[in-house]
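Design review, sub-item: ligand-bound model
Attendees: FS, YL, KQ
YL presented the inputs for the zinc ion complex:
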Amino acid sequence: MSQITDLEELVAALPHDAQALFNRFYRIELATGTVKIPADMMPWVNTRFGAVERVETQRIVSIKNRFTGEHSLFNQLRTDRPIEARSPVHLAELEEKEHCLFCQPETSTPADAFGRITGNYCVTASNIAKYDALHSLVIFKEHNPLIIQKEWLADYLSTAERWFETVVRDHGSSALHKFFLWNCLWRSGASIIHGHMQLTATSERYGRLAALEEAITTYNRAFNGDYLADLIRVHEQLGLARQEGRETILCYLTPVKEKELVIVSSAARSDELAETLYTVLQRYFELGVQSFNLAIFMMDGRHIVRLVDRGSLTDRHTDIGAMELYAAAVIASDPFKLADAILQY
Ligand SMILES: [Zn+2]
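KQ shared the predicted structure:
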């Protein structure tokens, strides 16, 4: 099976054009770290890592997107482990509805000035402490965020789209950028257990998205090309992509954190992605993912979804440190193993 630490060889085995496209996008650096294990530590190292040699010489792959600066570091010691299903944690608090404000949205959450948008399985609320002037919530009828159905998901997204249309109408003529996000459970930054998405509409793009848009514009002009189509092609050539109707699911080469998937869709509305999103979330749940971040935004005429695992609900340490905030992402999940686990169905 292919693995990320063999990336250089995998790229070298591609046809010439595919290699050229890969190298246009990415800069790979291979490095070997060496450590000297004291004799007293050897039994522990053997138990923990299988063999002292594996630890004494460690293969590290660094992958950097030349256009966006996205940069991830993979260490074979971490990526060697299989992407095994984590056992989901069964927590009573996921079912505790007694004091849940979102279980009574009509009376316990504020409404937008224009009122609420009501779906079959959700309702919107205004965010009480906003990130942005136009910032609201889609509150699911189902309290437990890990219980989802395809029709529910489609309804959440179509309600979000209707909120956005209403806001655009309300706001007058100026163009707004939509941004949908779903922080699921506390590892992801969610402060409320009850399932909900958040929506913002801004006239200025958020900084990171503006930088991505600029990278795409620069690329398209420089190569008279299509950044997103080429990004998909690079992943396809390595077996890291799957086409699903109008969507392509990528096991991303420069993940922001564990098991990141990027979906690029030519669908005009986000609710048209519900089927693919549902499938991918089911796959995530099967792997024991319970806490995740999901974002949906438009870029160069397409919808982009980003989805990332935020680790076990029982872990006390957070998964993001100074490296991720200020330098590059340190990743343990091998995108090739992720492709085996997620893209085969
Ligand atoms: Zn609730």
